[in-house]
Amino acid sequence: MRIHLWYSTELKVWRWCVTDRRPYLLPDRQESGEAKELDDAMDAIKKIAKKWTGKDEPNAGWFGA
């Protein structure tokens, strides 16, 4: 799982993109969004990570991770 988080000074918002490469025939996953407050952005990222991991471990075998 890869998490990209950055602040847009022009728009004055926190933006994020969460991606997960999955093995074999399962499709890759991606979610992105934005929030005015850092805490709100982190909460959204936490919810995505929890939803995706469930009982399985996130795929940390990405090349270049």
Characterization of the model:
The protein has one domain. It has one helix and three strands, in the order βββα. The relative contact order is 0.25. With 65 residues, it is α+β, with helices and mostly antiparallel strands. Strand 1 (2-8) and strand 2 (13-20) form a beta hairpin. The protein has a three-stranded antiparallel beta sheet, covered by helices on one side.
List keywords for this structure.
single chain; 65 residues; alpha+beta; three-stranded antiparallel beta sheet; elongated
Helix-strand blueprint:
Elements: E1 2-8, E2 13-20, E3 29-35, H1 38-53
Antiparallel strand pairs: 1-2, 2-3
In short:
The protein is α+β, with helices and mostly antiparallel strands and 65 residues long. 25% of the residues lie in helices and 34% in strands.
Q: What Rg, in angstroms, do the CA atoms define? A: 13 Å
Q: Which runs of at least 5 residues are low in confidence (pLDDT < 50)?
A: none
Physical arrangement of strands within the biggest beta sheet: 1-2-3
What is the terminal-to-terminal distance? 9 Å
Structural class: alpha+beta
Helix and strand element order:
EEEH
Residues in helix, %: 10-25%
How many structural units, i.e. domains?
1
Overall geometric form = elongated
Q: How large is the share of residues in beta strands?
A: 25-35%
Major pleated sheet: 3 strands, antiparallel
Mean pLDDT: 85
SS summary, helix count? 1
| Beta-strand segment tally | 3
